[in-house]
Amino acid sequence: MNVNRRHLMTGTIGAAAVAMVASACASEDGGGDGSGGKKVGISMPTKTSERWILDGDNLKASFEDEGYEVTLQYANDVAADQVSQIETMVGQNVNVLVIAAIDNKSLSGVLAQAKGQDITVIAYDRLILDTPDVDYYASFDNTKVGTLQGTYIVEALDLANAPGPFNIELFAGALTDNNTKYFFNGAWEVLEPYVTEGKLVVKSGQTALEQIATENWDGAVAQERMDNILSNFYNDGSIVDAVLAPYDGISRGIIASLQGSGYTTMPVITGQDAEVESVKYIIDGLQSMTVYKDTRALAATTVDMVVAVLDGGKPEVNDEETYDNGVKVVPAYLLEPVSVDVNNYQEVVVDSGYIDASELA
Ligand code: BGC
User: Fold this and answer.
1) Fewer CB atoms < 10 Å away: N or C end of the chain?
2) What is the pTM of this model?
3) What would the pLDDT profile of 21-49 be if each residue is shown by its tens digit?
4) How would you list the strands of the sheet with 136-140, edge to edge?
């Protein structure tokens, strides 16, 4: 793991993050922040994707800078394991839980226990549903992630001017992740008018979220679905012109499928997370774009929220209407995602220190 990507508070960070850096410096200087002896439990979903490893590392380092004792666990995409890991953290009397949920509806029981012990609960990047016991949500503008992906396809195919029709296939994330529908709806809002008009054609006919979802966000599952689509709907010599893919691991699975069936020039293919492997694919012309979300800034925002709550104050939020979890609207701080392609990857992900140039060699 590149050390520059870990706990570096440079680049595109928000005001909350800047405040956090200031307070981290104060505690390093011996100024003290009153967090001595506080414990935080961090529950991450999986190590199969690079971003969650960075999130975990950034959170752990940032909380430790604030003087917190940290327990960090990964649940390998198994929801029941995540529940039992969180139960153990509750048993350890943590003051705060920071959770990126595997299954957004599996945590009501364990969070009720947490609330019984006055533990502050932050939903990290993925909203937790059907419970009153989540205090705040720190994430990105998830609808905008989809908007950026959809808009990229529209512009790359020049749909405003080109006569078309172009063939497109659609992929979404895991149905157990609340973000999935925000990503897809954001993209679909941009793409659907062109499908209605007939300029974009979904030859598989698969446009419903349940049909296009990808279990566990697994690239191999997406690869298999793409294999099926190609052999069932593109066996007449027609080609796929664009693929809406929600996450880099899924994009790479789709690219493997296309390569396996003889594509040498890739369709327009979207992605998300600016994973090193996919940025390399972008440089090599295999993947068209990704959506960069600065996990350093998200960690800093989260730490800032926690420090404010445990100091008895109110954290800064910038959205108090979008994220209804079925029981309440969870106050959120949402960061901005950024569209990245071959033209701006250097400036956005390398110059900001998120990816070291040597990792792309
Ligand atoms: C995150 C994405 C990520 C996906 C798969 C989503 O909840 O917001 O950044 O690509 O999970 O891990």
Assistant:
1) C
2) 0.90
3) 333 333 333 334 445 689 999 999 999 99
4) 69-74, 39-44, 96-99, 120-124, 136-140, 332-335
